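Form 7-S
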Amino acid sequence: MSQGVQKLVLLHTNDLHSHLEQMTRIASYCKQKRSEVGNDQLLTLEIGDHMDRMSPETDGTAGKVNVEVMNATGYDAAVLGNNEGLTFTPAILRECYYNQANFPIIGSNIREVESGRIPDWMEPYVIIQKGPLRIGLIGVTAAYQTFYAELGWNATDPLEAVLTYVRELRQQVDVIIVMSHLGYGFDERMAKEISGIDLILGGHTHHVITEPHVFGNTHVCAAGKFGQYIGEVEIEYIAEHDAVSIVSINGRLIETDELPADEEVSGILKNNADQANLVLSQEIVHLEEDLALNWYEESPLGNLLASGLRKWTSAEIGIVNAGQLLSGLSKGKVTRGNLLEICPGPINPCIYSLFGYELREALEQSLMTEFTYKEIRGFGFRGEVLGSLCIDGLTVEYDLKRQPMDRIIRIGIHNGNFEEERQYRVGTIDMFTFGVGYLSLSKGTNIKYMLPEFLRDILSYQLQDTTEIQLAKRKRWIQSSS
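Output:
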């Protein structure tokens, strides 16, 4: 018999990026709602990028703090974002989720390269029963296939994966929810092109949707970034004679700043902060002298990172923007935590082929304040400004009295004459390949990305080589005295 209109409450979060202090408030709201409606009428979902290795707690515990907090909050399922999938190795993620998580990870568009199967700690989809309501969950993440291939995964076409599993699940469940770490453009396209989806919960592009966007019968929701909001969706339905019909879907956002803190999660964060501090206090090297950094002109620490990129990638030239580093290093003990502080971004090295004239264009721009002072956001960058270019394998003689884009007098290269029409193998950073900062550096070909190492890993190796430190003091940028 019908019990009249019933209601499922769905809470969703996305793109927390390890702003873990917000989880104390999110957890308190989730627990309060669970006590009000009962666990059988509450569904709690995470839509990816909960982790971010910029956080000392996340980096120092290899993501375990995030999983422990999610367990305490009572999540029912989660999908990986690129900040999980591309900044930790599959082995570390397996340890986090397979051995510790009390909730499933859905990877509808992830397969192992070697086996062709979904990793054993993921699910292709999940069916959850809440009261009489059968809910099908599909989870997809942005398909950065070139990067995932370096980690042994295939990230398949997410919309094809959604279509496949919608067709498989539609007759088995009453509601289909897609947990989408794809970005709003993909979510809108999915809603318009794939029938049979009731609700899309989005992330990745940090979009804020205060009320659901509706395309046909599909509702699209998202909760911004950094735990500023909790998304809350109410699904009203009628269950009668083993059949369920959806009456309405409504959504809103809950601001978290004024919510009370949950004591359990606060305690988890304190304990994990202590554990992370032990890990991050490990000494890497004892410096005999300061290593200075300047965002706007050549400095030893920037040179050291550029030479590290050249050496790590076995390239002819190393190049990186000074803004990747937040400060220099003082003489004395240098720890893992120090390197996280000065180089927090999840930026990976890469190598590609670049023409001499494309290099020259970027080097000329590096002598212009509109580039060096340019503010950058996103694409893994965690600094403030782009900064000048740090180089290795080249010397550049320049005259600032000349007109912009004509200030370079001569470019020298370690193994012969610099040629405009020749392609050079350049060791650099993935951010440049995305068209961020110095645009000519995005024109490289034959690109090979190198994961899972970050820039701070390369810097760690360089700091342990006293010869490299001495070489980093040599001038690459030489101002003409004429």
